[in-house]
TrEMBL record:
PROSITE patterns: ACT, PDH_ADH
Stated family: Belongs to the prephenate/arogenate dehydrogenase family.
Organism of origin: Cohnella thailandensis
Domain ACT: 312-380
Class in the EC hierarchy, top level: oxidoreductase
PANTHER family in alphabetical order: PREPHENATE DEHYDROGENASE (PTHR21363), PREPHENATE DEHYDROGENASE [NADP(+)] (PTHR21363:SF0)
Protein name per UniProt: Prephenate dehydrogenase
UniProt-listed GO biological process terms: tyrosine biosynthetic process
The protein's Enzyme Commission number: 1.3.1.12
Prephenate/arogenate dehydrogenase domain mapped to chain residues: 19-307
Pfam assignment, any one: PDH_C
Keyword Translocase: no
Catalytic activity: prephenate + NAD(+) = 3-(4-hydroxyphenyl)pyruvate + CO2 + NADH
Length: 380
């Protein structure tokens, strides 16, 4: 079942006052979720981290209303608890929450990239009147940390919920209602099926990307031209190899059984290619490309844009004439589409700061690399 929230226009009447949402782990995903509710009337967002300096950062960045290092304080009276920590920590958090007096009807959910183990673990716990409902937003990026959080991360993406036979329907409905603010499309499925499918379309590609980059990195030790000549295709297929090592360690280990089968199939796929090459079977190779093209062209395109998304960075530049023109020209020559350039501060003898805005995340990424190559400091 899929619920399309892409045309959701949040208007009054506002929800009942002060729905408390506690977010454990305000990183890329936890922070992006927090931003969807932050400042909306009737919602109070509390961020939890074990690290006091992280808590301060969540608040000063304006991602949450309040922060705490106390699990108990964060969970107390919460209507929704979002566990947004690496998959390997989810069960520990559930165990800790099960020891607390939670608000009756509180919905505990997670955003982990694997679902079967956390759903099974929650089923075996007495959550004192709270309900667990597994979740997984199918959107993200290779970036991590609260600094990478954006309000539109989930717009038009799928958001998987994995209720079991025990999950009260009312809890699923309340969660769907809350998730409308993310503008994601909610889809309900079984947790084990989720792990098989997401293993194939997300976890296997991450493994392959990392393996490919490391293979080429080894060749590069003999000749730096490998790195120099690596062009767009290599970048496209390996972007996700830059993902967070701890987050992905946990995902891959957790979905080990599914991945081992997928890797066997992948090796067989590569063996078939090797055979086509040995036979110099050009028609067979072309056919593989035709087949791949056909399926890839059917992939759904995610349209953002209900909320105009801007990807921005800041550049410190010495305050001398011509510098702005030079940066703009270099971006243009590299075919990077700059949608806005704003001088934030420029005084004599004080470095000026430029704010560069891009409609596409990819353009921002390329611009950052180019400008850092020009030896200017870039930050977000
Ligand atoms: N990165 C992505 O694109 C997506 C990730 N996810 C899932 O979301 C969850 C969070 O991932 P991200 O937000 O990408 O990671 P992140 O690294 O941006 O954020 C993780 C958060 O958990 C905290 N954390 C890290 N290790 C911890 C530990 N040992 N104990 C307690 N807190 C810890 C960090 O301080 C941070 O606040 C993971 O379970 C991941 O599988 C789901 C969808 C997409
Ligand atoms: O960056 C990408 O393209 C991703 O694949 C993002 C992603 C990463 C992990 C998930 O569990 C879901 C989505």
């Amino acid at each position: 079942m899929t619920v399309d929230n892409s045309d959701f226009k949040p208007t009054s009447p506002v929800p009942a006052p002060s729905v408390k949402i506690a977010i454990f782990g305000v990183g890329l995903i936890g922070g992006s979720l927090a931003l969807c509710w932050k400042g909306k009337p009737g919602y109070r967002i509390v961020g939890h981290s074990v690290n006091p300096s992280s808590v301060g950062k969540y608040v000063s960045l304006g991602v949450v209303d309040e922060g705490t290092t106390s699990l108990e304080e964060a969970a107390r009276d919460a209507d929704f608890i979002f566990l947004c920590v690496p998959v390997g920590r989810l069960n520990d958090y559930l165990d800790e929450l099960a020891k607390l007096p939670l608000k009756p009807g509180c919905i505990i959910t997670d955003v982990g990239s694997t679902k079967a183990s956390v759903v099974a673990h929650a089923r075996g716990l007495d959550l004192n009147g709270a309900v667990f409902l597994g979740g997984h937003p199918m959107a993200g990026s290779e970036r991590s940390g609260v600094e990478a959080a954006t309000i539109d991360l989930f717009e038009n993406a799928y958001y998987v919920l994995t209720p079991t036979d025990d999950t009260p329907l009312d809890a699923v409905e309340r969660m769907q209602e809350l998730l409308r603010w993310t503008r994601a499309k909610v889809v309900l499925t079984d947790s084990v099926l989720h792990d098989s499918i997401v293993g194939a379309i997300s976890h296997l590609p991450h493994l392959i990307a990392v393996g490919l980059v490391n293979q080429i990195a080894r060749y590069n030790e003999t000749n730096d031209l490998y790195r120099s000549l690596a062009a767009g295709g290599f970048r496209d297929i390996t972007r996700i190899a830059s993902s967070d090592p701890i987050v992905w360690r946990d995902i891959l280990v957790n979905n080990k059984d599914v991945l081992l089968t997928l890797l066997d199939d992948w090796k067989a796929e590569m063996d078939r290619f090797a055979e086509l090459l040995k036979q110099e079977d050009g028609e067979g190779i072309s056919e593989q490309f035709r087949l791949a093209n056909g399926f890839r062209n059917q992939l759904p395109e995610r349209r953002k844009g209900m909320i105009q998304s801007l990807h921005e960075c800041y550049v410190d530049v010495p305050d001398h004439p011509g510098i702005i023109g030079r940066i703009a020209t270099e971006l243009g020559q590299a075919r990077i589409n700059l949608s806005n350039l704003h001088i934030v501060e420029s005084r004599e003898d004080v470095p000026g700061t430029l704010r560069l805005s891009f409609k596409e995340a990819d353009d921002l990424e390329k611009a950052v690399e180019l400008i850092r190559g020009m030896k200017y400091e870039v930050y977000f």
